[in-house]
Write a structure and sequence with these properties.
- This protein has 11 helices and 9 strands.
- It is of the alpha/beta class and 285 residues long.
- The strands form 2 sheets. Strands 1-2-3-4-6-9 form a 6-stranded mixed beta sheet, with helices on both faces. Strands 5-7-8 form a 3-stranded mixed beta sheet.
- Helix 1 links the parallel strand 2 and strand 3.
- The chain is globular.
- It starts with 5 loop residues before the first strand and ends in a 15-residue tail after the last helix.
- The relative contact order is 0.13.
Amino acid sequence: MDYETLTYGRADRVATITLNRPERLNAISRAMPDEIRAAVERANADDLVHVIVLQGAGRAFCAGYDLKAYAEAPRAETGTQDGAYDPFLDYQFMDRCTQNFMSLWRSYKPTICKVHGYAVAGGSDIALCCDLVVMAEDAKIGYPPARVWGCPTTMMWVYRIGAERAKRMLFTGDLIDGREAERMGLVTRAVPAASLDAEVQKLVDRIKGVPKNQLWMQKTAINAAFDNMGLRTTQVLATVFDGITRHSPEGTWFKARAEEVGFHQAVKERDSGDPIPGSKPPRNN
């Protein structure tokens, strides 16, 4: 199978999926979510594969959706709706992306994400859908669009680190490094960047010798607890809210500002701490 946005390889009971848009820091294009799911399904169908490793080519794991392209392009070309907002149109697209990412979580076989550079916004969604995450100590993870123009549709933050820490991350949109992510319990392990490959290989070597049926049973039983806590319902709500964030007064301001001055300047203004110009003024009671 030929892929546009990733590469796939298999060796010694391990399937390796590599996001491969290094010139854009592996930013998520329209094709990437479908291809991730296809690669996961390919690994699950291969009787020789016991474990799946997900990584990124170049300087980062994944810098999120290609928001520069989406934010700076005219509204009609990006899925941002003009006029009356139909949440279903937005939900269809974003829910498909979410379920494609969740193929990593629902995979019959364990998935390990190797994070270097950045796992930001949608990139953090992808990473946190994996069963285990090993991160370079100097790598950064977070969801900056939580400030304006986004809500993490997988909402894996709360399931990994609990309500209070998830609120801390999504109220601020802050990025944290691998050390803090490990202390928080967000990732399995953080190691020096030079040791990242070796640390992942060590973990893979321990897992790949376990029978596939044993791995599937342990994973399925653990995932069932998350399903019983309402994971799917939470994701439906988060995906609806994600669409609303792009059509709220503040989201509309951000989109117009990105078209006017460029995505990076709009982000700088969004994250400055100053009031968002699109916000409605407070009412005097």
